[in-house]
Amino acid sequence: MGARAETASGAAATACAEGETRWARGDGRGAEAAFLRALDLARATYGGGEGPPGVLPARAHVGLGRVRLAAGDTEQALAAFRRAREADPGGAAAPFWTGCALARQGDLAAAEACFTEALDREDPHPRAAVRRAWVRAKSGRRAAALDDLRAAARAGALDDEAHWLLAALGGGAREAALRLRRAALTALGGHAPDRERAAALTAASWALHRERGAFVPLYAATLVAGGRRDTAADLLDDATRHDPADHRVTHALALALINSPAENRERCVGAWGALLHDAAFWERIRHGAARRYGVDVPDSLVPDLRTALREHLARRLADGTADIDARVPPDLLLQREAEAARLLDAAGGLPQVPVRGGPLRVAALGAARELGAFAAATADDTLVHAFSELGFARIQLRQGLPGDALAALGELRCRACRARPGAADPGAAPVCEVDCARFEELNPGYAGLPDGRERLARDARDLALHARVTLGHDQLRADPPDFDAATASLRRALVHARELGRYRRTQAKIVGLALATAKDAHRARLLSRAVATLEAARTVIGANERPRIDGQLARALADRGIVEANREGSTLDAPAADLRRSVGLSPHGRRAQLSLGIVLRGLALQRWGSGSLSGARTVLEEAVEALTAALAHFPDDPEIAEERRRAQDELDFVTEQFDESGR
């Protein structure tokens, strides 16, 4: 070989070395360019041709094939390894890496043959026995795999992954898992961290031995970095069940889930709900912020921080579930979880189980029975309701959304129970069936009650009663009011009240709300609105409560009649009708009695003016009769007596005119 060829050969060797260095650093593109340059230089050394013989070209082809195999291009990798085998038929690297590529394709038999070939070379590949053990283990040949691994161990060729396989096949799972985790963390170091490999090793270690403790969040972060978020969430779920009080693990779980697919929404809300009212979590946040920014973060800021975090979470969750058929909106789900967590924290928490959080969290940790027993022993039903499906409706009712609360009360059953035959029966209880496996999971607050299902149905009816009364009241006060809808709402409220044995009390409440609403309208001179409000309430209540309505309705009718009668150009039929009704409802109303007589005299004059003598006489006869009846209630009233005298005189005059005209 001449001096020029020697120079080219040296340059090719240098290019190969550069490619291997770049590959070790994770620079795949730079490594590929270096290996291609090495091949060009090798061809120049041997005078061109498709594939010059020798170890150096084979080395470059192997390097190029490894780059392409890592990029997922298995066919191109196999082509490169084939050229390497042609360039150096006696080398072990080409059959070894061909076996790796075939194993990735799933051709385990061909891969095993390649690894065997690499072992049979004069200079065997140091990793061939371990790789053959892998494919033999995957093929179900455990004994043959163990033989390979033990032989490799005697030669000192076992790394942490091989130790794991040896332990998995022959025992020693905990030690093997530790080796895998160490290998995973090693894979994350250096200039070119291999996140996918680190995640795969961590997942394998977890499957082999579930190590719990302070390093669990680190292992989870390794899995997330390598694209195995679901495995990370499962790991953290297991760790939180083992130690529910460790807010660091719960925080890691919450972070993993909020960046996961929307199907994990309820798990995510459960984790964040536990943190929102975890004092230790906020203490760590405060101290961490103080160290990072060098300023004191007082405890008084925690409520504002908690509110800001909850609002941020609600927005994130809503953005991620726009296309999901959600049973409950994410913001409401989070509110219910946080509110229940706050109430449990205020009650001192479960005495025997270190659980923080709301219903979703309690169910996830399998503590529904413990929570139910604790809630049942409290002085009131606050915890019982908060840790149930009723919690959604209670929040919405408290926020002034009775319609939404009623909609939530229609969703108390799980999907399976709603889909059962007969679930649409209007007489059926709006709760899960007796044999429903999810009742306690969805309603842990009722898990400690022997009649939990019946209690939930009764409490739901009680809440529906309050929601119906509130909705009816809102519909009366709306602008414009919807009196038909209000009447329907109040009637349904009374149906619930009758079932609960609170009919009279609910009637009294409806009357009180209607009177207050009508009084406000009356003061604002919205007389027709006041009348319609009282009329709506009067149609739904029983006779025992009507006197309270009738007095104010009579006053409202009288005022409306008088105002309309005094309006210029008014026809007096409507005012007369209002005053007649006012007097009928409250005969002791002097003002209405006197005004009715005056308006009837004016109406008779309108009839006279239109040419109807008979109409005028009829109205005057009514006026005389009404004023006579008024004098029975107010016998010494000079104004009523004078008004009756005038009505009688006018009646006598009209009667004379009627007799003369014959009309």
UniProtKB/TrEMBL annotation:
Mapped TPR repeat ranges: 58-91
Keyword Repeat: yes
Name of the protein described by the UniProt record: Tetratricopeptide repeat protein
Domain of life: Bacteria
Keywords for this protein: Repeat, TPR repeat
SMART domains: TPR
Transmembrane domains' residue ranges: none
InterPro entries, per the entry: TPR-like_helical_dom_sf, TPR_rpt, Ycf3
Pfam families from the UniProt entry: TPR_16
Keyword tRNA-binding in annotation: no
